[in-house]
Amino acid sequence: MNEKGMNTMKLSNEAKVGGLIFCSGLLALLFAWIVGVQSPFQRSVSFYVTYHFAGGIEVGSPVRVSGIKVGKVEKIEFFAPVDLKSIALQEPGSVEFENGKAVVPLKVKISVRKDAAKGVRADSRFYINMAGIIGERYIEITPGRLKSAQIQVGDVVAGVDPPRVDQLISQSFDLAGKIKDMIDENKGDITKSIELLYKLSSNLNQTLSWVDKSAIFKSDLSKLIENLIAITSDVRKVSDKVHSPEGEKTLRLLYQLLWRLEPIDSGTIKSFFQKEGVKVQFF
Amino acid sequence: MTEVRMWLSIVRLFFQTIFNFFQPSAWRRAEIIHAIVQSGIKSIPIVCLSTAFAGVVVTQQIAWHMDLSLHDVSMIPGFTGQFIFRELGIAIPALLLVSKVGASITAEVGTMKVTEQIDALKLLRIDPIEYLVFPRFIAGIVSGACLTLLAVAVTLSCSALVGILGYNFGALEFLNGMKHFIGVADVVCALVKGVTFGSLIPIVSCAYGFHCKGGAQGVGTATTQAVVSATVAIIILDFLITYFFTWFL
Known about the structure:
By secondary structure, chain A is α/β, with parallel strands linked by helices.
């Protein structure tokens, strides 16, 4: 190829720089997509969720509807005044009052994709969950019933506070302290109990070793168990028969017989036999 | 004391160059494009090659340590992704630009200084800052940003390749694992660093070139000092920008 041909094939500096900037722009868009920047052309619904304790939620945390990521936390406001009537499904402890006005400790603004917002209703629940082993916090929205009103832009709904692990730990410490106090107060009794338990287990151990060594238990134990099984089987059969109508009739008759025999004493029997001509010294 | 004076003159040169933003005569398109080709386009092969291998090495090291200590390699995408976006994909191209472009600029300007070409420019009433520094400064900003994005992309791709081939990750799985750790602040931090380092290199290099004395030996000494100073400045600025983005954003 001659020099002229080579020159026509070479890109001009402008084209090279243009290509570099174009590629860099594409890469910037790719990175924006990777980090989850939402498209400015995508329509979403923004509304507020109130909490008393938000357990690690931050701006940018994901929002999921039925487990699918459909939005994010836009803004967090502290001690924001709200119209009490506007809070749908008020959760206990989510609203406090200051000078007669309702104040929520936390008001979280979230945006949800418009197609997913169809499932977010007035009776939806807003849980704060933790994902994966890295402990990423997110808001999980459970879909509400179709007959409930759909969430609208700017609505305020009450969220469900997550369990307070710090409180749980604090209460555990309190409980541990009480247990320790109780142990300290009843140290003597507990020591005695432990000693008795120790003796008991030692005796039980000796007994068990005796049972283990005993020839009786070695030879006859299985027979004894077999007999016991046979006996219980017989007893069961008898009890079944007793519970039958015939058995109940027999029992009733037996009861009547005993009732009649109860007043009979030795004198009555003697006179009965004498009347019959039998002269025998019975008693 | 000489170093302090040198740094003061670097700061002064920076503000003089910034002042040229408002001078329409400083925006000479052909010079700027030529400078971008010299500092940006011609650095692409070396930046891509170096960051590709850096990505492979870092991913393997992180995976090895995670496997050793946690017996779990599921967090490789997140850790490598964040490290690449915050440090590796930015510092390596910046340091390569210092040694390639910075040294070249100092040698060029220093030679012009010792051969009295800069004095000749002044005699012709041409501002050397507007004529020599400003195009390189703009080229440095553009190249810094573009090369940073390119380097991050190459490093992430190689890192993902190691994850996919060596640790049985799926491509989407790797991407999703990375997404949990990387935020908008990381991308903005990368771009801010790229632009800062890209603008710093020509300023430091030109300042050392302007203060070049003697003959060929003076040019060599100025070049060495420029590379060392720019490298140290980049490392310190890297710390400051990272600190700012970590604690304030």
